[in-house]
Design goal:
single chain, Rossmann fold, 6-stranded mixed sheet, 4 helices, 9 strands, 22% helix, binds inosinic acid, binds magnesium ion
Length: 193
């Protein structure tokens, strides 16, 4: 089922002309995020987990996710850059902004927007494990398993999607489209021109 992409109060947004189709509406995302929050809350109750958001794509998702988790938790962020072209990552990763918290002995839940090749997260997991946390698990809003190159153990997945370039709800193309309140597929002519 294809629904029309919209902003609730601004159907004339110029961003919408670049969207081929809506993959998940704001309502569908909210329903799934609530389910993920309930599951995470059950699993981590009493463990005082540290949620680690991987900037910047995760910003919108993690804001909704933490408000769907009634268990006590801490929140921290890490920013990494993965070299590559705009739509393909290379697996060469650099930490741009490290965590503020010490994760030794902590139950860490890494929160990502999307796992594509898995190269970025497999690098990050190695870095975090060296710091001897009590546990590390991964929660991703989107999983694109078709192009996986590195094995990553993902515990929580919002939606599994086909190999399409997705924007909105925090995800960008060339830093744009993060503010779309839904997940949409970008028209290929936008990134091939
Ligand atoms: P990976 O290392 O290939 O798993 O790349 C993961 C990162 O690439 C994500 O955190 C995103 O920043 C970016 N990425 C991969 N696929 C998409 C997409 O469809 N839309 C937007 N960003 C994407
Ligand atoms: Mg990312």
């Amino acid at each position: 089922m294809k629904t029309q992409p919209t902003f609730a109060h601004a159907p004339e947004s110029p961003l919408l002309a670049h969207i081929e189709e809506t993959l998940f509406s704001g309502e569908q995302i909210a329903t799934r995020v609530t389910e993920l929050g309930a599951e995470i809350s059950r699993d981590y109750m009493g463990l005082d987990p540290l949620l680690v958001g991987v900037l910047r794509g995760v910003a919108v998702f993690i804001g909704d996710l933490v408000r769907a988790i009634p268990a006590p938790l801490d929140l921290d962020f890490i920013a990494i850059s993965s070299y590559g072209t705009a739509t393909r990552s290379s697996g060469v990763v650099r930490i741009l902004k490290d965590l503020d918290e010490n994760i030794t002995g902590r139950h860490v839940l890494v929160v990502e927007d999307i796992i594509d090749t898995g190269l970025t997260l497999s690098y990050l997991m190695r870095q975090l494990l060296e710091r001897r946390p009590a546990s590390v698990e991964i929660c991703t809003l989107l999983d694109k398993p078709a192009r996986r190159l590195a094995e990553v153990p993902v515990k929580y997945v919002g939606f599994t999607i086909p190999d399409k370039f997705v924007v909105g709800y925090g995800l960008d193309y060339a830093q744009k489209y993060r503010n779309l309140p839904f997940l949409g597929v970008l028209k290929p002519e936008v990134y091939s021109r």
